[in-house]
């Protein structure tokens, strides 16, 4: 037909629809753009917008839909999908509500599913409290979307129950089709199991989550978006451990088409983890490149600059890291508090505690917070700068006083202080008392007692402080202490003293009287003498042999010491190159001397000694009166020697 009439509108429309049905969206869009004069926007607006949508040209698809003169139902359906991909969830929600309200056909269930998906996205990415749409969760898609909305609210246990219900419904609906295999069911359940694993990960059950993640990857699902999210979550579990596995999982996040399947925040989280993994694997250039790219995309985001600073710290460039953070804090005052906290941490790591305190005190919105006051006081105390620590307390107390004056303007004179304010005053007083600042602590204690005159503990502290400064004032204040009669403590003293943890246990009355009687009658008591322990004797001690009187002296100082005798055979060893023989080598051969008696006895050989004579050799003789001790001789084996040498 087109060969006969190339501008036939009906034929061109049919050709475009056929190309779309075959998935040739690019070719179909080419036909539409070639015949713009014939195929006007009124005629083929939906087909053109749909081709642009499937080719991920979302902005162009939105313009095509908005330029159409007539908004048909199918254009409105596509309009809702385009708004969802653009993450304009408020407009998308309004579009689907309008569709559900003004249409009645067999696609109502699909529209409700899409509506619940929009609500889930709002809860997850925009932290919007979802409204109850009143949808009956009869399908597993509706249950899944409801579970996602609950995850966004932090209701993890309820979300897990919804996912379990979605899994059950999914198995029921798919098992009714005889053509669906078990593998197909598992592939459809992969996204549900992925959300279950994510909940386990949030609950701290990382081992269970990791096992379920790996099971999903083994199924090799065709959804590249699902694989990318699972791989990213496994990387977050590994952190700086199991880096080799993380590097393999990163490849799944780089699959083609991932950027069209995930939201902007999901893609951003994946890029952040890539930069962190590059830092942990010591790929400094790659880490800097990724973090710089992230910072250019989101200049106000904290994570890119924090990653850059962390990389500089790994390279021992702490000063450069602090400078980078300071520049970011100056450019983005809204995020200065978090950046300055990081700067203070770096200063503490370098040992510059005073500079860290200066940075922390420059954060005006956190100066009065109890946590900040506690940290500053602790650091100043570590540096023994008590005046600065007291100044921190004073500034925080003044801030609360000014805040109370602003909120209670025009009210009565006396105003009760907030619990945080009173807690700061008490901590300041305790700190001053601990460091000997009695006079400064008195004003704080008086303020506390004024707020609560029945506080006996504060009154006792106040009297204790005044006793060192103004004893008369302490006496006056002591009159306000309750009398001992009014302080009736229902405590069993005997039971308390006899308790397991008592440091002092009172003796029983019978034993006390018996001890006194013994002391009165015991004039002739004699203190028991401690028996001396017998000294240990040597194992070879012989009582018949008289001990050597010089045994306590060193061997060299004894009268019978003759010095060490050098070995006679040392001079007989031949000198020269290895393997050469000498004249005396025959004398060292034990085999040749077997027939004749040895010239000297072998060490440790009783037969050799008895063979020569019964005379004891000089080296074995002992001095008169000395104990008979045997000296062990070590038998050293030499290579190449025979006969026990």
Automatic annotation (TrEMBL):
Coiled-coil annotated residue ranges, if any: 58-113
InterPro entries: Signal_recog_part_SRP72_RNA-bd, SRP72, SRP72_TPR-like, TPR-like_helical_dom_sf, TPR_rpt
Chain ranges of the Signal recognition particle SRP72 subunit RNA-binding domain: 507-563
Annotated Pfam families: SRP72 (PF08492), SRP_TPR_like (PF17004), TPR_8 (PF13181)
Positions of region (Disordered): 507-645
Subcellular location field: Cytoplasm; Endoplasmic reticulum
Ranges annotated as biased composition (Basic residues): 527-537, 629-645
Major localization class: cytoplasm
Superkingdom as given in the UniProt entry: Eukaryota
Key word Cytoplasm present: yes
Any one Gene Ontology molecular-function term assigned to this protein's record: 7S RNA binding
Annotated Low complexity bias: 591-608
GO cellular component: endoplasmic reticulum; signal recognition particle, endoplasmic reticulum targeting
GO biological process, one term: SRP-dependent cotranslational protein targeting to membrane
Biased composition (Basic and acidic residues): 513-526, 539-560
Residue spans of the TPR repeats: 190-223
Keywords: Coiled coil, Cytoplasm, Endoplasmic reticulum, Repeat, Ribonucleoprotein, Signal recognition particle, TPR repeat
Family to which the UniProt record says this protein belongs: Belongs to the SRP72 family.
Name of the protein in its database record: Signal recognition particle subunit SRP72
Organism, as annotated: Sagittarius serpentarius (Secretary bird)
Gene designation: Srp72
């Amino acid at each position: 037909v087109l060969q006969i009439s190339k501008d036939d509108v009906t034929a061109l429309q049919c050709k475009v629809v056929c190309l779309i049905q075959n998935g040739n969206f690019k070719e179909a869009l080419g036909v539409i753009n070639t015949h713009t004069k014939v195929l006007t926007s009124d005629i083929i607006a939906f087909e053109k917008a749909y081709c642009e949508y499937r080719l991920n040209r979302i902005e162009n698809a939105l313009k095509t839909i908005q330029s159409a003169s007539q908004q048909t139902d199918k254009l409105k359906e596509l309009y809702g999908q385009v708004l969802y991909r653009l993450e304009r969830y408020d407009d998308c929600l309004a579009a689907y509500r309008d569709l559900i309200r003004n249409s009645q056909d067999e696609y109502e269930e699909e529209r409700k599913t899409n509506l619940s998906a929009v609500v889930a996205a709002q809860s997850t990415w925009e932290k919007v409290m979802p409204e109850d749409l009143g949808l009956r969760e009869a399908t597993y898609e509706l249950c899944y979307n409801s579970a996602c909305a609950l995850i966004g609210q932090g209701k993890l246990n309820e979300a897990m129950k919804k996912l379990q219900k979605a899994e059950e419904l999914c198995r029921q609906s798919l098992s009714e089709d005889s053509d669906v295999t078990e593998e197909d069911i598992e592939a459809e359940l992969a996204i549900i199991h992925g959300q279950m694993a994510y909940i386990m990960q949030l609950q701290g059950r990382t081992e269970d989550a990791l096992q379920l993640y790996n099971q999903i990857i083994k199924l090799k699902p065709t959804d590249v978006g699902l694989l990318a999210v699972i791989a990213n979550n496994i990387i977050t579990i590994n952190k700086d451990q199991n880096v080799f596995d993380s590097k393999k999982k990163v490849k799944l996040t780089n699959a083609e088409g991932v950027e069209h399947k995930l939201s902007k925040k999901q893609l951003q989280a994946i890029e952040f983890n890539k930069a962190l993994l590059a830092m942990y694997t010591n790929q400094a250039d790659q880490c800097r490149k990724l973090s710089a790219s992230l910072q250019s995309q989101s200049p106000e985001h904290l994570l890119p600059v924090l990653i850059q600073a962390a990389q500089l710290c790994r390279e021992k460039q702490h000063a450069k890291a602090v400078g980078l953070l300071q520049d970011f804090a100056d450019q983005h005052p809204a995020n200065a508090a978090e950046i300055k906290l990081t700067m203070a941490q770096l200063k503490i790591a370098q040992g510059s505690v005073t500079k860290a305190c200066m940075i922390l005190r420059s954060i005006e919105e956190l100066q009065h917070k109890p946590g900040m006051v506690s940290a500053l006081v602790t650091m100043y105390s570590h540096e023994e700068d008590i005046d600065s620590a007291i100044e921190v307390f004073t500034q925080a107390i003044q801030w609360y006083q000014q805040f109370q004056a602003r909120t209670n303007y025009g009210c009565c004179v006396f105003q009760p202080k907030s619990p945080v304010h009173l807690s700061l005053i008490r901590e300041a007083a305790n700190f001053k008392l601990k460091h000997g600042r009695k006079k400064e602590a008195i004003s704080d204690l008086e303020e506390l007692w004024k707020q609560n005159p029945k506080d006996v503990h504060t009154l006792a502290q106040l009297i204790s402080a005044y006793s060192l400064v103004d004893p008369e004032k302490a006496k006056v204040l002591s009159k306000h202490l309750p009398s001992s009669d009014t302080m009736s403590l229902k405590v069993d003293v005997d039971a308390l003293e006899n308790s397991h943890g008592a440091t002092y246990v009172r003796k029983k009355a019978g034993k006390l009287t018996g001890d006194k009687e013994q002391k009165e009658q015991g004039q002739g008591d004699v203190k028991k003498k401690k028996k001396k322990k017998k000294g240990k004797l040597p194992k070879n001690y012989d009582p018949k042999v008289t001990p050597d009187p010089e045994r306590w002296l060193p061997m060299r100082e004894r009268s019978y010491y003759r010095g060490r005798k050098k070995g006679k055979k040392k001079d007989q060893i031949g000198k020269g190159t290895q393997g050469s023989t000498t004249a005396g080598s025959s004398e060292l051969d034990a085999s040749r001397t077997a027939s004749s008696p040895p010239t000297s006895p072998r060490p440790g050989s009783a037969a050799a000694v008895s063979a020569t004579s019964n005379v004891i050799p000089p080296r074995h003789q002992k001095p008169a009166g000395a104990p008979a001790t045997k000296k062990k001789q070590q038998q050293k084996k030499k290579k190449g020697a025979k006969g026990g040498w």
